[in-house]
Amino acid sequence: MKIDTIDLGPRPVLLAPMEDVTDPAFRLMCKRFGADMVYTEFVSSDALVRAIDKTRRKLEICDEERPVAIQIYGKDVDAMTQAARIVEEARPDMLDINFGCPVKKIAGKGAGAGMLQDIPKMLEITRSVVDAVKIPVTVKTRLGWDDNSKIIVDLAEQLQDCGIAALTIHGRTRAQLYTGEADWTLIGRVKDNPRMRIPIIGNGDIADPQRAGECFDRYGVDAIMIGRGSIGRPWIFKEVKHYLETGEQLAPLSFGRRLDVLRQEVADSVARLDERRGIIHIRRHLAATPLFKGIPNFRDTRIAMLRAESVEELFRIFDNIYLASETALPGSSSF
Description:
Layout: E1 2-3, E2 6-7, E3 13-15, H1 24-32, E4 38-44, H2 45-49, H3 53-57, E5 68-73, H4 77-89, E6 94-99, H5 104-107, H6 119-132, E7 137-142, H7 152-161, E8 166-170, H8 185-192, E9 200-203, H9 209-219, E10 223-226, H10 236-246, H11 255-272, H12 275-288, H13 299-307, H14 311-327
Parallel strand pairs: 3-10, 4-5, 5-6, 6-7, 7-8, 8-9, 9-10
Antiparallel strand pairs: 1-2
């Protein structure tokens, strides 16, 4: 599958852009486990134009993670256009426009998925951004604002006409936020539309290799994007890629190896920020990881892990978890 001239190979698996998740260290981790392309956290166009230092740092990418896309959001045509030019100077492989973020502080102000209530402006922004830069421009959006306005089939054609190079569709409406099940049937209808010429990337509820294969086979998408299913579990890309290539389930990494991956995530987060902020940042990954699922009587340990305030304390808890896994009787837990 190609996006413009960028060849991602057959049935590529992409890391979704996620605020406070897809920082440089996590992107590299997912890349090493087989992600075919990664996306930055979303970047505010207004903050970029105002040269806010924290926002500018989100544009930092490295050659190791390529191909990489930088994603921007906003509701003002001029700010989005200026931001696109600033992003191009950071030399990403492509630029992605966020028309899908459902959270109130973004969508409620008309940006992200809020644009699904103002399609003319969405299209104006898209055309202006495409015209402003030479790198490929892609869009990520949702099925519509709510169940009464699932407009994605027609909207996809309109966005294509604006000159975008690919379209990612999350199989929920804005009103759903992240609740309920993602509806891939409309994603499949977009892909089946004979007037669509650009790649269609499906996103939503891909949490295991079998579901990834089903999304390719049943809905015909050109690529899939994994978001929440990768948090605290970057090895999912290796599992999915192996299944797509062989049709067989990959033998899972050992408990100790997966725990080492989480240790590395902690170390990377602390190195990028500092000990206090790095640990706070990584708690989301520790809370979401399925690694500890099924461990008996884990509640107190989980609380301690998420309250740890130093790397030493956190790694000591990891050591105790690992020692408990080594001494557990066969079949006594999911270790």
